[in-house]
Amino acid sequence: MKGLGIVAALVAESRPLGPATRRGSEPTTLADGTLLIVSGVGPAAAAVGARRLLAAGARALLSWGLAGGLDPSLEAGTLVLPLEVISPEGGMLETSADWRERVCDAIVARHAASRGRLLSCPEPLGSTAAKALAFRQTGAVAVDMESFAIAEAASAGRVPFLAVRAIVDAAHDAVPEVALSATRPGEDGLGLARMLIALARTPGELPSLVRLARRYRTASRALSAVAESGALAAPRSALR
Q1: For the whole model, what pTM was predicted?
Q2: 205, 176 Cβ separation under 8 angstroms
């Protein structure tokens, strides 16, 4: 997929796409020619990763990975291919319409998908109350931490942008503190030691953690379906 550059925050999120190098390295070139970088969590890390992809020759940028659900009607595993991504401050950037619709057409028969707006926050929204408030205030159907920063880099570089996110924790799912403690801004993997320490302090969160692990497998299967669809190729307009 010549010209395509993909940013994934975590190594685990990138696995449906193929082998990836660790954060801080140069982009990996996948077998089909796609450039992939694992940036680490958060907007600052994602912006750096996006700029590295552009410097390496990417002519279209894709934000890839997991998201938290805000719309109560969307369950874990729902794919979010937003018409636009927004920031808490009111910023709004559109995604590439032809690219988005091509991907939607390729996967809609097998997986539920939403084109609703995607909110990017600098911190995770872990509680159901925080998710409900964000849904009321913004109308966004899902939330992540990286897509708006990647969209800004695409806009600055004048290249098409698309976000493909799979909901892992639905609007009615509170994210266990042990899971939140396992990932820190800028990191590209889960801090297993931190999670085990936190779980030892709050063993009552084990059932929620197990439930989240099941949701994660569902979301990962949805991302794998998109990767296997062959529809992610950059729009032709980016390759002229």
Answers
A1: 0.86
A2: yes
